[in-house]
Write a structure and sequence with these properties.
By secondary structure, the protein is α+β, with helices and mostly antiparallel strands. The chain contains three helices and 13 strands. The longest helix is centred in the N-terminal third of the chain and has 12 residues. It starts with 8 loop residues before the first helix and ends with a helix.
């Protein structure tokens, strides 16, 4: 054995270990979609002189000087002030609003531009798909929530929301206005506006196609 090679062995072993170590993996596609939804989702404070309410929403449009936070129109209160909490914690007062009561949609305009917006959408699929949305339990902090939707219950109708369909996804008061995306591609598929009477595991959802058909009208 040539002893002159011995001092080199530890270096060779070390080099082999480093070269064989796998490269660190970046975020998965699903994790990127979760980040995208989290950055676009907002919490909405509805302030009245004697009461306060909370809803959920998302930044659906943005330009250099302003952005629109979409939410449910039934969150509207006459004379209320609306404050939108962004993903970074900033609280921004709405300067104006637009309502489409026919499909329970409202846009709160805030003087903050170039925000991360959720704009890509597709028709609500019949299933199966994995839904990702933000849940607010009784107005509490937003929680990213997943639900495996085997099928949409289009046979269930809501008397006070004729454009809504039933989706097997858990909801609670405070979640109204929450966006739902398909975890397969991150595209918006609907907005939560409530849940079936005495069945919080079945959410009432306005399909994305109804929302954008309305927004496209002059």
């Amino acid at each position: 054995m040539d002893v002159r090679l011995l001092p080199r062995l530890p270096l060779l072993l070390c080099a082999c270990v480093v070269l064989a170590a796998p490269a660190s993996a970046g975020p998965s596609a699903a994790e990127l979609i979760r980040q995208q939804l989290w950055q676009a989702a907002v919490r909405i404070e509805i302030d009245l002189p004697t009461t306060r309410a909370r809803c959920t929403g998302w930044i659906g449009y943005t330009e250099p000087g302003r952005s629109a936070a979409y939410t449910a129109a039934h969150c509207y209160r006459e004379g209320a002030q609306y404050r939108v909490t962004l993903e970074n914690g900033d609280l921004v007062a709405a300067s104006n609003l637009t309502r489409w009561p026919g499909i329970d949609l409202m846009a709160l305009w805030i003087p903050r531009g170039n925000l991360r917006a959720l704009r890509a959408w597709k028709p609500l699929p019949d299933g199966p798909f994995r839904a990702l949305y933000v849940l607010s339990k009784m107005g509490g902090p937003l929680i990213l929530t997943e639900a495996l939707v085997q099928r949409v219950y289009r046979e269930i109708r809501f008397d006070d929301h004729p454009t809504a369909v039933a989706v097997p996804a858990y909801s609670q008061p405070g979640t109204s206005g929450a966006p739902i995306v398909d975890l397969a591609d991150g595209m918006l598929i609907g907005m939560v506006i409530g849940y079936a009477s005495e069945r919080p595991e079945v959410a009432a959802v306005i399909p994305a196609e109804r929302i954008y058909e309305t927004l496209a009208k002059p």
